[in-house]
Amino acid sequence: MIKSGNLRLDQKYSYVAVDHLIDSYSNCEYCGKVIRNLFTIEGELDKKQYIVGSECVVNLTILNPTMELELKRKLRRKLKFIKTLKSCQYLEYWNYKDTVQCAAWETKEQAKNHWGSWRTRSRYDDTVKKIFKGESVFKQDV
Predict the structure, then answer these.
(1) Which residues of 50-65 are buried (b: 16+ CB within 10 A; e: fewer)?
(2) I need a surface site. Which of 79, 126, 129, 142 has the fewest CB within 10 A?
(3) Which domain holds residue 88?
């Protein structure tokens, strides 16, 4: 089964190279696990190279890409963001370039003492406002 990771699932990946670290470790760019065997793969559409572990290289190189997989990955990330935001009690927002950014903490005290240690951070838009007010952000079928 293909896990949801950080790489696009709507493109094919091809194997490029392998390397083995002896005295250090790295992280898989797909699942985030600590790895020692570094497999380099390249995306067919974006032509970017990624470093992944031995399990993920197998899953990604045999992947039959579809938009459905990519949409499921994006939905899982959005649901994780919503869950994190709902656990927070304090939200602060500010203007940054042409958008409004926001950061959320579990308490106002944490926000005062630890500016950089927010639980989550994103653009401050209608979706964030609804989540923080406890409203539904998904359209329901009638």
Answers:
(1) bbbbebbbebbeebeb
(2) 142
(3) 71-133
Residue 28: C-alpha distances to residues 32, 60, 108 (Å): 5, 12, 35
Q: Would you place residue 4 in the very low, low, confident or very high pLDDT band (cuts 50, 70, 90)?
A: low
Listed in sequence order, the residues at least 6 apart from 73 whose beta carbon sits closer than 8 Å to its beta carbon are 4, 5, 9
The answer on 78 and 36 residing in a single domain is no
User: 78 and 121 share a domain?
Assistant: yes
pTM of this structure: 0.51
Q: Are residues 40 and 83 in the same domain?
A: no
How far is Cα of residue 49 from the mean position of the Cα atoms in its chain?
A: 18
**In the structure, what pLDDT confidence band is assigned to residue 142 with cuts at 50, 70 and 90?**
very low
SS3 content of the chain, % helix, strand, coil (to 5): 30, 30, 40
Nearest Cα neighbor of 89 from 42, 133, 26, 54 is 133
Q: Is position 139 within any domain?
A: no
For residues 50 and 79, state if they share a domain: no
Among the residue ranges 18-32, 54-68, 86-100, 128-142, the one predicted with the least confidence is: 128-142
> Does residue 75 sit in the same domain as residue 118?
yes
